[in-house]
Amino acid sequence: MSNALVPLPVVLPLFAAGIKLAIGPRLARTQRGITVGVLALIVVIAAVLVHQTDAHGPQTMRPGGWPVPIAVVLVVDRLSALILLISSVITLAVVVYAIGQGSADKDEATPLAVFHPAYLALVAGVSDAFVAGDLFNLYVGFEILLTASYVLITLGGTGARVRAGMTYIVVSLVSSMIFLIAVGLCYAATGTLTMAQLAGRLDALPDGVRLILQLTLLVAFGIKAAVFPLSAWLPDSYPTTPAPVTAVFAGLLTKVGVYAMIRIQTLLFPGDRLGTLLLVAAALTMLIGVLGAVAQTDIKRMLSFTLVSHIGYMVFGVGLATVAGLAGAIFYVAHHITVQTTLFLVTGLIERRGGSTSLTRLGGLARVAPALAVLFFVPAMNLAGIPPLSGFLGKLGLIQAGIAAGTAGAYAMVGVALLTSLLTLYAICWVWNRAFWGERRQVPEPGQVIEGRRGIGGTAITAAVPPPAMTGPAWALVAFATAFTVAAGPMVDYTRRAAAELLARAPYIAAVLPS
Amino acid sequence: MGVLLAVLAHAVAAVAGPWVVRRCGVRGFWWLALVPAAVTVWAAVAAPGVIEGRPVVWAAGWIPEYGVSLALRMDVLGLLMVFVVAGVGALVLGYCARYFAGTPHRGLGGFAGVFVAFAGAMLGLVLADDLILLYVFWELTTVFSYLLIGFHAEERNSRRAAITAIIVTTSGGLAMLGGFVLLGAAAGTYRISAILAAPPAGGTVPVALALVLVGALSKSALVPFHFWLPGAMAAPTPVSAYLHAAAMVKAGVYLIARLSPAFADVAPWRPVVVAAGIATMVVGAWRALRRNDLKLMLAFGTVSQLGFLCVLLGYGTRAAALAGLAMTMAHAAFKAALFMVVGVIDHATGTRDLRRLSGLRRAMPATCAVAALAAASMAGLPPLIGFVGKEAAFLALTGDPVALGGVLAGSALTVAYSARFLWGAFGAKEGHAPTEVAHPPGAAFLAPAGLLAAAGLALGAGAPALNAFTAAYVGRYPPGPHDEPLALWHGLTVPLAESALVIAAGALLFRRWRSVPAFRFPLDAEHGYRVIMRGVDRAADQATRFTQRGSLPVYLRSILLALLLLPGGALVSGGPWPHDVRPWQVPAEPAVVALVCAAALAAVLQPRRLGAVVCAGVAGTGTATLYVLYGAPDLGLTQFLTETVTLVAFVLVLRRLPARFGERQVAGIRVVNALFAVAAGLVVAGVALAAVSVRTAVPESALYPQAAERAGGTNIVNIALVDLRAWDTMGESAVLLVAAVGVVGLIYGRRRPTLPRVGDATGPVWAIPGAPRIEEPEAVRDAATWLRGAETLSPERRSILFEVAARLLFHPMLVLSAYLLFSGHGSPGGGFAAGLVTGLALTMRYLAGGRYELAEALPLGPGVCQGIGLAVVAGIGLAGLAISGEVLRQAVLDARLPLLGEVHFTTSTIFDAGVYLVVVGVVLDILRAMGAELDRRVEREHEEVATA
Q1: Residue B505: which domain range?
Q2: Is the pLDDT at A107 greater than 80, yes or no?
Q3: Are A298 and A258 in contact (CB under 8 A)?
Q4: Is A166's CB within 8 Å of B552's CB?
Q5: Is residue B923 part of a domain?
């Protein structure tokens, strides 16, 4: 069924990016309006798609109107619709925050010339990855979002950002190359790249070749999703970027990798042949990641390590390859996108208010800025999986799935997941103890320049009570995550249906290839 | 509905708390106390029905797929706990109003909010009828208590105690969560009442129960988790009175009481509960006896009593359960009262150290009376409820020498420290002047403690009434030999003798407490905890140092290693090896491949950047040749043009970089890297061979010629790009554009330059610093102007020949690019190649005429070109969507026009024009940034050097 909404989350931001580049640095207010308007429209589109996929099954679009497999096909099923919705909400919140930060730093030229177009391209790329029904187009989606991320990570061109960007860009290029090789191999072996068609043709391949293809794709996506031992690049490259950029990276980019893993593990390579490998990787990712978080003395780095660690939860669900496991992974993706984004945005606020993100320099913030303390505490506890917040619900789903699976490996994973949860709480409490409690440190006077930190365009950041345009989006995201708890019933229900749809494969294939 | 409202009212009060306290000051606590007070009254009204066996229930769905519901249920056990939680809660909140009076506390509003939130969570915990919901409230109490313990946040001790409490109780809590899920899976439901009605057995149930007990023991501070509780005394005294006497620490006891009727006889339950309980009771009381801080003495006393309660409520007989309930009530009343008394003393005298207190009996007689009443109940003296409970306990444990012996010993120690508490707080000490009482407590300050102490007396007197009250709960246990109702006087029985013995022994111990050895237990749990946490920290440091090297080559090696081990391993172990491999298709192929390989190798070995760039260019050109050999002239053309533009870009940038690469890595590492690279190449080649060899299906490209015909063209490469896979092209246009925007942004930094026009030219462009100035020959100056911009160049940089050639070739190149753009549908070409040709034409103008010539050639900003290009590409997509409902749907128009005759036009040409604009914009961007902008900087630096 051709659905005109499917391509819009990709085309609209690209169109807007083109218009904005053509306008140049003029009409700042209009331009901000365009960006916010387009992203808000995508939220609405994604919400409608969630409803439509749930009511009528996967929605498709064939660009150019060519029959499959000649054309690229775009497909939105329950999984992509949900992730599209979550990601569009957070991209909207982050851009409002970034605009607020730009105004606060009196730094608007660079954002308009570079940040906005690159950000819109990033959104288009992320959306394209989620709607791609063709393996090469999935690669293109990754390329768009990665290229945009290369630009965003080096924004302003400060020394630290270029150094961190170097690691990020080279690792990403290598992963893209591995992905591209895998795409070529798939085409070589099957003569198609349409995933619905690949599904059938891969089944018919000799086992050895299937395994090679699966492993190559998993390595490529494992790098993007930051699965141990392919994860070390992440904590080295994320913390130097401006808060809104780190926030959107942390929220979205790794999750695109997880999404791709879910897609290939269910549609292209069904069954749990590599389940054990994934479970081992998940366990190592959780533990090594969270140990890294415990060892940090900087909030941004600590959060980057928890980001890696909690990717393990999602891989755990994928590795189980059951409806409950996948549903848990999907729920966790939605949760984790939201909570990580929120926390990085709040860290930006902490930096602005407290003059630093280092635990050796912060102290007593709870008394100085009680509202900021609440704004940190709620998502931080959510990350630590404290009930009834969404992190707990995701964890509960995975634990149930692990126990229902009943294998020794699954039981061990449940233990690892609980231990990781505890250590996350430990890391979070240390941050709280030292930054929000602790001896009152001198917070910088409003207007004082914060050393070593740079805004979006590389300008100096001055300390200030953050304006509502920056705190507003953070509060909105906290409320959004809270909505997961309130609507947990329908949402878990939806993720179960999404997982069942993935494992059944037939609805997806039938939507793309009507017999 | 009432149960729900009871919890919700607390939630509302918690949110309003900060506001109320900020508005009314400490008086706000009175208003907040109304909420738990109202709940207590409501529970009292509902009590008759509950006692008769009609629990108050309310349930709603929450997460049906998880089997989790919002089920609340108040039965007799719940009712009793509601009285403890809400009743004591109301009194403690009232006490807060005086405790915090006079001393300005920042953050008191937040404290009030968290305190009420805690009370609400505790209430939810004892009312939850769903294991998961119970866990939700359980963890909430942990988190809120963390915040309350750390109230004095500037003190290091408070913070440490808070984190210890949350980590210890959460580690137990998480184990318990695992146990709950196992139990729920075994029972098929999380509904507690349903599980108790039909308890699951066998399989994973013993494991589940063990895990649940870990949670309960950690929460109730039983050995070996007991150490967090004395530390938590860093909290303000109302918190200790509530959380660490009446409420939170009772959670574990409550859970044991809740599950015992069904599971007391299942494997690990009774032995674990009795062993941990007895050990805790004795250890706690022992350590309480030697404390000098009154609050710490009570804290260890609490630990001890919690052990006692666990033994009774987990024992699993009617008599023990009855005694347990009586002791639960007794403990809530006397311990909260005693904590409050300590707070009163602390306020009045400024100390809680019994070595500094003397003679308070005379100075604070009312306080002393309250404390004496409460302590008597703690010691188990008649006619208080503590006595009734203990009697019942001795009776219930008759026949179990271990449990009975432990409880008797613990009770004797309890008598001793109760006496020592009273003596220490109020007694007159020899050689010690009476302590000065700065602020004698008012009636309102003492009233909450007084009420609780009096409750102990009332409950003792009214003990027989408790039998009916608890019947519905106690009746769940099988009848046993010791089922006697609660009463003050049973006659001359063995338990009475035991009571007398305990009191006598306790009195003796008190008299001679100094001779009680300060026994240090060989297994110090707190020490163990610190060792574990230090181990975690050390493991964290080491693991992170090992995995997080901060070195890009290490990360790349680990990625390649994954590639070698996983797909490579699969290839070696089971990959199909192709049997008929043709080494090449065209004889020229091996020669070109050898060239590419050699160029790639040379690029790596080059010590100079320029050399490396040239070698890479050779490799790229070789690849382009391979495309041509395979019959793909379009790809070949595009690749050749790309290589050319790239080379120009590189050369422009290299001006600003050192000629040689930086320090090379040591030889050993280079060998390792080379091995990795070669191995990765071999694996990729191998898997490619394997993949190609298994294809049986017809590739989709076989459908392209036919599709191209329908699209109105013959060049399938171009048609794939602008029509069949136009979606990908749109994306790749964005990639190209964004990359250019980013690179250029890095060069410009925050400065956005304006378009440099010839009129703005200041000095001679590209002048060689230090070189003697050459006068332009007259003939040159008077000659016709071929390029206006060239006149801005420094004379020694001008080449008339180049200027003429550039002038003459520029327009033919534009015509060529237009041809490529429009002919793409039928023959090699297309928007991308066309854009590169235009870009090369612009490059030529720049190289011949300098940066001001660029604006002469194309007076447009690159952003405009790129932006319009991308907007056209995406706009065609939107137009197709709007007109035909399919994004990027292209239309073919065949028309007869005057003069032009037959015109064959496809909208994909417009799409291709968009791509063209993007490419032109990108090249222009590169020329402006890496050419013009760097020129400007080089010249400025030279000027600065010259002026300096």
Answers
A1: 277-515
A2: no
A3: no
A4: yes
A5: yes
For B904, phi then psi, to 5°, come to -115, 115
Q: Please report the pLDDT score of residue A179 as a whole number.
A: 97
Q: Name the closest residue on chain B to residue A23, using Cα atoms.
A: B864
Neighboring chain A residues of B684 at a CB cutoff of 8 Å? 181
- What pLDDT is attached to residue B778? 73
Identify whether B495 is preceded by a cis peptide bond (ω within 30 of 0). Answer: no
Chain B residue with CA closest to A16: the answer is: B871
Q: Please state, in angstroms and rounded to a whole number, the distance separating the CA atoms of residues B384 and B377.
A: 5
Please give the pLDDT value at position A305: 96
Residue-level pLDDT at B765: 80
A420-462 tens-digit pLDDT: 999 999 999 999 999 999 887 777 777 777 777 777 766 777 7
> Is B559's CB within 8 Å of A171's CB?
yes
Rounded CA-CA distance A4/A49 in Å is 10
Residue A447, SS3 per DSSP: coil
The end-to-end CA distance of chain B, in Å, is: 86
**Closest among A373, A432, A360 to B162, alpha carbons compared:** A432
A102: its two tokens: 């730009």
B875 found inside a domain? yes
Chain B CB contacts of A393 below 8 Å? 63, 66
Three-state SS annotation for B103-128: CCCCCHHHHHHHHHHHHHHHHHHHHE
Say which residues have a Cβ less than 8 Å from residue A427's Cβ, sequence separation at least 6.
A290, A293, A294, A296, A302, A305, A306
What is the pLDDT, as a whole number, of residue A269? 94
Cβ proximity of A501 and A77 under 8 Å: yes
Long-range pairs, B507-510, Cβ under 8 A, ≥24: B507/B415, B507/B416, B507/B419, B509/B289, B509/B412, B509/B413, B509/B415, B509/B416, B510/B415, B510/B416, B510/B417, B510/B419, B510/B420, B510/B423
Q: Which residues contact B783 (CB under 8 A, 6 or more apart)?
A: B800
CA B537/CA B534 separation, integer angstroms: 5
Residue B700: the pLDDT is 84
Residues of A in contact with B550 (CB under 8 A): 236
The domain tally of chain B equals 2
Whole-angstrom distance, CA of residue B253 vs CA of residue B268 = 16
Domain end marker among B489, B515, B541: B515
B812 lies in a domain? yes
Domain for residue B404, yes or no? yes
Cα–Cα distance, A251 to A345 (Å, whole number): 11
How many Å lie between the alpha carbon of A295 and the closest alpha carbon of chain B? 5
CA-based nearest residue to B305, from B281, B278, B275, B329: B281
Among B465, B488, B515, give the residue marking a domain's end: B515
What span, in angstroms and rounded, lies between the C-alpha atoms of A303 and A431? 10
Q: Averaging pLDDT over each range in A351-360, A504-513, B800-809, B882-891, which range is the top one?
A: A504-513
Helices (H), A70-115: 78-104, 109-110
Cis omega before residue B553 (within 30°)?
no
Query: Can you tell me which residue has the tokens 């519901």?
Result: B69
- Tell me the C-alpha distance between A385 and A395, whole Å: 7
Q: Which residues contact B900 (CB under 8 A, 6 or more apart)?
A: none
CB count within 10 Å of CB B694 equals: 18
Residues of A in contact with B64 (CB under 8 A): 489, 493
pTM of the model: 0.95
B741/A21 Cβ within 8 A: yes
Regions of chain B where pLDDT drops below 70: 104-105, 516-523, 575, 664, 750-752, 779-783
Which residues of chain B neighbour A386 with C-beta distances below 8 Å?
139-140, 143
The Cα of A492 is separated from the nearest Cα of chain B by a number of Å equal to 7
CB A161 within 8 A of CB A231: no
Question: For position B181, what pLDDT does the model report?
Answer: 96
- Tally the C-alpha atoms within 13 A of residue A3's C-alpha that lie toward its C-beta: 26
